[in-house]
């Protein structure tokens, strides 16, 4: 198989590849085929000029682009036919009535050229075996004798124009080697770009799979983050509730301490008991409704102010002790003074 010459597709130069694969060598270049196309254009121009260079048909012909070649590298069947004529080869339409009337078995021919929508490729017999030398394939494709007729019929159904090559093809290395031995093809060649397409498809599939995996991982990470946030918020709520509970307990303890201190102070103050108890209960009732919104520092300050007021109220009612240094007469004077002090409030 390595001895078979096979040009692969480059641009739109399928006509060049078709001719070189047929002749089994680099016989034609794009420049060679372009010169043949220009010669054909000049011959057509001269034939049109015979009807008059001032005619409308001639001016229209000059304005039209070449029908034998274009900028993409396509060449017409006339260019291929003239190129093969240099080697003494002739093209015959395979599905024409003249050829079909001959009823020739395709395996007895030497080569075929096929064309469909500006694409050209060669089917040639090398030794005793047929090969598809399509430039769009990665290599020559072995065709069995029984499959050749079916392959040509399939190409006709797909719209291909098939031409039979008549004449003596130039000698080549592949013809000599395959003339003494037969080859077996283990793996059929693929279309050029098919491996790349499968590779790119595999890459895209792997990429999409990895994206799915990453997406699942991202979703798991997002769920973990949301769970952590929810736990953090719940902890904050618990901490806030604990702080509020501690504050309520501190307020209750302070209230109990205030009540106990009030009771002890009332027992010592005697006459001020009822007034201070009423004031303490009223202040305690008001404080019970307000202390929940107070801080510990404000609560301490208010308690201190409350005790200060009680001490100020209790100082005028404390009895004065007699002066032990004074004489007996002075005792009567002090008693009189106490009676005067008791009568002053009544006055």
UniProtKB/TrEMBL annotation:
<keyword id="KW-0788">Thiol protease</keyword>
<dbReference type="InterPro" id="IPR003903">
    <property type="entry name" value="UIM_dom"/>
</dbReference>
<dbReference type="GO" id="GO:0004843">
    <property type="term" value="F:cysteine-type deubiquitinase activity"/>
</dbReference>
<feature type="compositionally biased region" description="Polar residues">
    <location>
        <begin position="258"/>
        <end position="268"/>
    </location>
</feature>
<feature type="active site" description="Proton acceptor">
    <location>
        <position position="119"/>
    </location>
</feature>
<dbReference type="Pfam" id="PF02099">
    <property type="entry name" value="Josephin"/>
</dbReference>
<dbReference type="GO" id="GO:0005634">
    <property type="term" value="C:nucleus"/>
</dbReference>
<keyword id="KW-0677">Repeat</keyword>
<keyword id="KW-0378">Hydrolase</keyword>
<dbReference type="InterPro" id="IPR006155">
    <property type="entry name" value="Josephin"/>
</dbReference>
<protein>
    <recommendedName>
        <fullName>ubiquitinyl hydrolase 1</fullName>
        <ecNumber>3.4.19.12</ecNumber>
    </recommendedName>
</protein>
<feature type="active site">
    <location>
        <position position="134"/>
    </location>
</feature>
<keyword id="KW-0645">Protease</keyword>
<feature type="domain" description="Josephin">
    <location>
        <begin position="1"/>
        <end position="180"/>
    </location>
</feature>
<feature type="compositionally biased region" description="Low complexity">
    <location>
        <begin position="307"/>
        <end position="322"/>
    </location>
</feature>
<keyword id="KW-0804">Transcription</keyword>
<dbReference type="Pfam" id="PF02809">
    <property type="entry name" value="UIM"/>
</dbReference>
<keyword id="KW-0539">Nucleus</keyword>
<feature type="active site" description="Nucleophile">
    <location>
        <position position="14"/>
    </location>
</feature>
<feature type="region of interest" description="Disordered">
    <location>
        <begin position="258"/>
        <end position="347"/>
    </location>
</feature>
<feature type="active site">
    <location>
        <position position="14"/>
    </location>
</feature>
<keyword id="KW-0805">Transcription regulation</keyword>
<dbReference type="InterPro" id="IPR033865">
    <property type="entry name" value="Ataxin-3"/>
</dbReference>
<feature type="active site">
    <location>
        <position position="119"/>
    </location>
</feature>
<keyword id="KW-0833">Ubl conjugation pathway</keyword>
<dbReference type="Pfam" id="PF16619">
    <property type="entry name" value="SUIM_assoc"/>
</dbReference>
<dbReference type="GO" id="GO:0016579">
    <property type="term" value="P:protein deubiquitination"/>
</dbReference>
<dbReference type="GO" id="GO:0006508">
    <property type="term" value="P:proteolysis"/>
</dbReference>
